[in-house]
Amino acid sequence: MINDLFLRACRREPVERTPVWIMRQAGRYLPEYRAIRAKVDFLTLCKTPDLAAEVSIQPVNIIGVDACIIFSDILVVPEAMGMKLFVDEGKGGPRFENPIRTRAEINKLAIPDPNRELNYIMDALRLTRKILNNRVPLIGFAGSPWTLATYMVEGKGSKNFRSMKELIYSNPKDAHALLDKLARTVAAYLSAKIEAGAQAVQIFDTWGGILPPDEFKEFSLRYIEQVLKLLNRNGAPTIVFCKDCGHSVEAIADTGCDVVGLDWSIDIAKARMMVGSYAALQGNLDPTMLYAPPERIREGVKKILEKFGRGSGHIFNLGHGILPDIPVEHAKAFVQAVKEESIQYHR
Amino acid sequence: MINDLFLRACRREPVERTPVWIMRQAGRYLPEYRAIRAKVDFLTLCKTPDLAAEVSIQPVNIIGVDACIIFSDILVVPEAMGMKLFVDEGKGGPRFENPIRTRAEINKLAIPDPNRELNYIMDALRLTRKILNNRVPLIGFAGSPWTLATYMVEGKGSKNFRSMKELIYSNPKDAHALLDKLARTVAAYLSAKIEAGAQAVQIFDTWGGILPPDEFKEFSLRYIEQVLKLLNRNGAPTIVFCKDCGHSVEAIADTGCDVVGLDWSIDIAKARMMVGSYAALQGNLDPTMLYAPPERIREGVKKILEKFGRGSGHIFNLGHGILPDIPVEHAKAFVQAVKEESIQYHR
């Protein structure tokens, strides 16, 4: 392993500087990514291992990040469970043709064998590991059961999430049946990813924040915990990123994950005070700060480094995915600023 | 005053039961409101005092809420400052034709005399007070400087708020110039509303939650504080509602407001523990819970009442505005449940 800063920081072991990667780092802000997407559609890219490997590695070469995350989409998992996924180009991300609405539809969902129905991702992981040749660690990921369920019930992103909220408030038993099935699916999926070469895994709970704190614990966190319990970790650190869930940082750390991902709505000094003695933290620059000029980006980076303070246990990242219209030079300036400014906190 | 429960709860004085009103209670979920909107457009309704009074009072008569909030829109204030407002029917709420982009445009904005440019709202308040005849108190409101500025710079709601974020991160001086002008405008506007008959005022900070906590304090809360300092209260309680700002409940209470409005992402028991000894709390049922059947709504109400616990200092409300497709019977069931279930906490 040439650069294992990321893995050491996940385990809160000493590092020479703070490692950094960027959520959605393999994405549209990179001209090299857009060049490939001009030739194939989004789902084909997800399902073609050599192309997925290529775009996964692009930010390692171009931006200089300390970890590679495999290019994929969280919705390929419900697709493997039997739902029909399609991408309406230009109209946002992938969507489901027939959202889940009944218990019969929940019961019909399969728990896929990830090495069969999702083997193209395992191939992409194996290939990416081989090409990376240990330059940086490789991260695998999945959506949380709650976030996947929300997409499956709504069909797509939503403003008020009426269908999913009706399900949990009017018919919680069906919601739990769906979430339990998803937890078992996600655990098997992430275990297979680790077996195929992922050296860390991140669970994305994009929609945890639409719930009140009690319901977040009942319908989202409980199933993330189940995933982590069923997971065959084989030494791979686990990261849990719940967006807009600053109300439950301690509960998230209590799931047994190694790293708590923070969005930009929480003060990282406060988060470290609360859970820093038993979890590493990942985050949390406001992604829109990358619109600002490089010298301002550096100020933003310095502020967060200072808030976290001395010692290991911090993986620098944005508080959410990088936006598609961020200039590449700004992404580079961000990574460079972390690399340079963090050294003093690890002497 | 026949029913002053709301005002007493704002002041944390003893009440016989917890008062309740609903953000956006004068709105599209009411057939009686839709009947009027079928005849006049949204801005005409805002600007016609007898119609504004009529729709403001509808929920008092139909739903039985304990407070009346004057029907209006926060964006009539920037309009009075010189911006051109228009409503693209069917495409969301009001928008600005020419968003603010330069310092020259900021400098050109007027600080309106609310009794001239916004006198139609003062007329509506006077008329509503007269018709209400002290049945329930009348609330006036305004957008926070930050929220108004965000709409003025973006032109409308946004996903990532790129323009506003660029302004604060790249050009904070201009942002402060705009916010200072807005704070003085909002203070004069709310003072005039109180003079015209508003017995309490609420500041809506819809977009405070898009900021990291430090920037929230610098660009939003600081100017809410300025409004409150400049405000001629004349005894009227002040409510500050910042959406998605659970990270700063204590700082919000420290502005000197009487009531902190809570969205549904914070546990009201925790909020009371933090600030309950010096501020009342308003909220905070998840608005989508009103999609559930009345018996489930009652369970949700009971849970929040139990969380708040015994004693005064709680105004029941949703955690955000009522959604336009909520059945009227469910809104009634919500209000009725609060009225019945809360008595035991005030014995």
Key attributes of the depicted protein:
homodimer; 347 residues; alpha/beta; TIM Barrel; seven-stranded parallel sheet; two-stranded antiparallel ribbon; 9 strands; globular
Report on this model:
- The structure is a homodimer of 347-residue chains.
- The first copy, chain A, has a single domain (5-346), classed as TIM Barrel, CATH 3.20.20.
- Chain A is 47% helix and 11% strand.
- Chain A has 15 helices and nine strands.
- In chain A, the strands form two sheets. A seven-stranded parallel β-sheet of chain A has the order 1-4-5-6-7-8-9.
- Chain A is globular and about 60 Å long.
- The two termini of chain A are 22 Å apart.
- Chain A binds chain B through residues 160-162, 165-166, 169-170, 209, 211-215, 244, 246-247, 264-267, 284, 286-289, 291-293, 296, 300, 303, 319, 323, 325, and chain B through 160-162, 165-166, 169-170, 209, 211-215, 244, 246-247, 264-267, 284, 286-289, 291-293, 296, 300, 303, 319, 323, 325.
CATH topology of chain A: TIM Barrel
Largest sheet of chain A: 7 strands, parallel
Structural class of chain A: alpha/beta
What would you say the CATH architecture of chain A is? Alpha-Beta Barrel
Strand arrangement in the largest pleated sheet of chain A: 1-4-5-6-7-8-9
Provide a compact summary of the structure.
The structure is a homodimer of 347-residue chains. With 347 residues, the first copy, chain A, is α/β, with parallel strands linked by helices.
Secondary-structure topology with pairs:
The structure is a homodimer of 347-residue chains.
Chain A: H1 5-10, H2 31-37, H3 42-47, H4 49-62, E1 68-69, H5 76-80, E2 85-87, E3 94-96, H6 103-108, H7 119-132, E4 138-143, H8 145-154, H9 162-170, H10 172-196, E5 200-205, H11 213-230, E6 238-242, H12 249-253, E7 259-261, H13 268-275, E8 280-285, H14 294-308, E9 314-318, H15 328-341
Parallel strand pairs in A: 1-4, 4-5, 5-6, 6-7, 7-8, 8-9
Antiparallel strand pairs in A: 2-3
Helix pairs in contact in A: 4-7, 8-10, 9-10, 10-11, 14-15
